[in-house]
C-alpha cells in the first residue's frame, strides 16, 4: 500500500462511489480529494444523505470505491484505525460493560495486564466505573454510546473515525468526551468526526470539511473559514431610544438595536450624540459555523 507525506495521516484522491439502483446511477461520492493531517481534529459537515458515512466506509474498506484511492501514512493502516458508525451496533447487550471492554481488548491481542489497566482508565474517563458490572442491555442509549466509545479507546488507535460520537450523550458526558478528544489530538492522534451539533465544531474543530451531494465544497481551517465569511466587521448596538438617520447604511435589527458596519461607526456615534441617544450595549457581530454551514448548503 502506498504511503502519504510525513505530515498526513490519510490522503484521499479522486474517490468516487456510484451505486446502481433500479437501473439508475446514484453518485454517493464524486471525485473526493481530502488530506487529513496528523494530530488534527477535522469535522466533516453535511446534510443527511450527503455521503459522509459512505466516505468513512470507503476509508475503512467496508465499501469498495468505484474509482480513486485511500492512502495511509507510514505508521498507519486499517489495523490502526478506531471507528464508530452511526446506527451500527458494536457492543454486546448480553455482556456487562467490563466484559465488553475485555472481550474486544483480547480480540485485538492486547496483553492482559495492559488491558486491565486500560479498562480502568477508560471506565474512569467515561464516568462508567459505577456501571462496570451492569449488562449493556440495561443501560440507556447514551450510556451504551459511552460503552461503544470505550471499546474504541481500549485499542488506543492512531486514527479515530467518529460518526456522530455524541449522539445520545448528555451535556456533561459530551463535554468529558470533547476534552478527551482534544487531549488525544495533542498526543498526535488524527480524528475525523461527523456531527450535526455545530457547537462541537466551534469548541474542538481545527479543520472543517463542508460536504454536499458527495462533493467537498470547502476544506480549510476553522479560522480561515470564519475569516472568509466574516470579511467586514459589524457592530451590534443597542440604544435607549430609536435613532433616525437620512441615507445611512445602518440596519435596524430590532427596536433600539442597530447593526453598524465598522467604517460607519463614527458617523453613527455622532448621530447618537446629536440626538441625545445613549448606547446601552455594543457587541461585534460575526457569522458562526452554523450560519456559515446553512449559507454554503443553500
Describe it for me?
Belongs to the ABC transporter superfamily. This is ABC transporter ATP-binding protein. It comes from Nosocomiicoccus massiliensis. Residues 10-238 form the ABC transporter domain. Keywords: ATP-binding, Nucleotide-binding, Transport. It is a single chain. This protein is α/β, with parallel strands linked by helices and 298 residues long. The chain folds into three domains: 1-76 and 158-228, P-loop containing nucleotide triphosphate hydrolases (Rossmann fold); 89-155, no CATH class; 232-286, no CATH class. The protein has nine helices and 13 strands. The chain has helices spanning 52-59, 97-107, 112-125, 141-154, 171-186, 198-204, 222-228, 265-274, 289-296; strands at 8-21, 24-37, 41-45, 67-72, 81-84, 159-163, 190-194, 207-212, 215-221, 234-239, 251-254, 257-261, 279-285. The strands form three sheets. It has a six-stranded mixed sheet, sandwiched between helices. Strands 11-12-10-13 form a four-stranded antiparallel sheet, covered by helices on one side. Helix 5 links the parallel strand 6 (159-163) and strand 7. Helix 2 packs across helix 3 and helix 2 packs parallel to helix 4. The longest helix has 16 residues, at 171-186. The chain starts with 7 loop residues before the first strand and ends with a helix.
Amino acid at each position: 500500500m502506498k504511503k502519504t507525506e510525513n505530515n498526513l495521516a490519510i490522503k484521499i484522491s479522486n474517490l468516487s462511489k456510484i451505486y446502481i439502483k433500479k437501473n439508475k446511477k446514484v453518485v454517493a461520492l464524486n471525485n473526493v480529494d481530502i488530506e487529513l493531517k496528523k494530530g488534527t481534529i477535522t469535522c466533516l459537515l453535511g446534510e443527511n444523505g450527503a455521503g459522509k458515512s459512505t466516505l468513512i466506509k470507503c476509508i475503512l474498506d467496508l465499501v469498495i470505491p468505484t474509482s480513486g484511492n485511500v492512502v495511509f501514512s507510514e505508521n498507519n493502516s486499517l489495523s490502526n484505525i478506531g471507528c464508530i458508525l452511526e446506527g451500527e451496533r458494536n457492543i454486546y447487550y448480553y455482556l456487562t460493560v467490563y466484559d465488553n471492554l475485555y472481550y474486544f481488548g483480547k480480540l485485538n491481542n492486547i496483553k492482559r495486564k495492559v488491558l486491565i489497566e486500560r479498562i480502568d482508565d477508560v471506565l474512569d474517563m467515561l464516568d462508567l466505573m459505577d456501571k462496570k458490572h451492569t449488562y449493556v442491555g440495561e443501560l440507556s442509549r447514551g450510556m451504551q454510546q459511552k460503552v461503544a466509545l470505550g471499546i474504541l479507546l481500549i485499542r488506543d488507535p492512531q486514527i479515530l473515525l467518529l460518526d456522530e460520537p455524541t449522539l445520545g450523550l448528555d451535556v456533561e458526558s459530551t463535554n468529558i468526551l470533547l476534552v478527551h478528544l482534544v487531549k488525544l489530538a495533542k498526543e498526535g492522534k488524527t480524528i475525523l468526526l461527523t456531527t450535526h451539533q455545530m457547537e462541537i465544531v466551534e469548541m474542538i474543530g481545527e479543520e472543517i470539511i463542508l460536504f454536499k451531494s458527495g462533493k467537498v465544497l470547502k476544506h480549510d481551517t476553522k479560522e480561515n473559514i470564519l475569516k472568509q465569511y466574516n470579511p467586514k466587521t459589524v457592530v451590534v448596538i443597542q440604544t435607549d431610544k430609536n435613532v433616525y438617520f437620512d441615507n445611512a447604511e445602518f440596519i435596524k435589527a430590532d427596536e433600539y438595536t442597530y447593526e453598524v458596519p465598522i467604517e460607519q461607526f463614527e458617523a453613527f456615534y455622532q448621530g447618537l450624540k446629536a440626538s441625545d441617544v445613549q448606547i446601552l450595549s455594543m457587541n461585534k457581530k460575526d457569522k458562526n459555523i452554523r450560519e456559515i454551514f446553512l449559507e454554503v448548503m443553500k
